[in-house]
Amino acid sequence: EPEVTQTPSHQVTQMGQEVILRCVPISNHLYFYWYRQILGQKVEFLVSFYNNEISEKSEIFDDQFSVERPDGSNFTLKIRSTKLEDSAMYFCASGRALGQFNTEAFFGQGTRLTVV
Amino acid sequence: AQTVTQSQPEMSVQEAETVTLSCTYDTSESDYYLFWYKQPPSRQMILVIRQEAYKQQNATENRFSVNFQKAAKSFSLKISDSQLGDAAMYFCAYRSAEGGNFGNEKLTFGTGTRLTIIP
Fold first, then answer.
1. Helix (H, G, I), strand (E, B), or coil: what is residue B86?
2. Are strands B32-39 and B46-52 parallel, antiparallel or unpaired?
């Protein structure tokens, strides 16, 4: 069964460093998302991406965040200058193939980002 | 803006028994979807069940079923014959359907209910 894959599973970075979280969505999906979950809290929407552009972003997704689909298969989240409060689990999700109207978002297994 | 509320931070149930997890939501929209996601200790988010707001019939998936009360804006999850593998965090989520194909696709999650299965 197709699945969303994320790498790495765990990343430790120093405050102020740039990190790139990588995701390979399900191949025929058109919509891509990043969510984050600070430990013990609820899952929060960051950004949605469709047709090679951001379709919506939350107030969390400020100028230090960016997303890219560089090669038609990968979908990346870049955090330019990490802060301690960026420590969280980051989930990539994808959904809705062409011609389909199902509404499920399929999630990856997450990347745990620890900023020290 | 839509909000999703899960008022039970923790629940426990004996193995093989039935448990119901509560979820309420607030929206001014008439067309939307509701979901229950399961997050086991591995932290992956797994879709359990989906309900379209325009459908009156409650969704079922094997041992999982929902009680969808649109007027009351309530969406509870019933797990029958609970198994040890059901132990997880369960999140209720809302998604608008009013934007069509190019609309608002994001999920709004509740704070979750941690379900413990007692052997």
1. helix
2. antiparallel
Question: Residue B107 and residue A50: Cβ atoms within 8 Å?
Answer: no
How does pLDDT run across A62-108, given as a tens digit for each residue?
999 999 998 878 999 999 999 999 999 999 999 876 566 666 788 99
Q: Indicate the Cα dihedral angle A80, A84, A89, A91, nearest 10°.
A: -20
What percentage of chain A's residues is helix, strand, coil (to nearest 5)?
Answer: 5, 55, 45
Interchain proximity A104–B112, CB inside 8 Å: no
Interchain contact, B105 vs A48, CB within 8 Å: yes
3-state SS class at B17: coil
What dihedral angle (degrees, nearest 10) is formed by the CA atoms of A82, A88, A90, A91?
A: -170
Per-residue confidence (pLDDT) for residue A50, from 0 to 100: 87
| Closest partner CB to A103 (pick from B50, B110, B111) | B50
Q: Which of A34, A44, A107, A112 to mutate to test the interface with B (most CBs of B within 10 A)?
A: A107
Say if residue B105's pLDDT is above 90: no
Q: Which helix (H) or strand (E) holds A113?
A: strand A111-115
**Residue B86: pLDDT over 80:** yes
pLDDT digits over B29-68, tens only? 988 999 999 999 888 889 999 999 988 899 999 999 999 9
How many Å is the Cα radius of gyration of chain A?
14
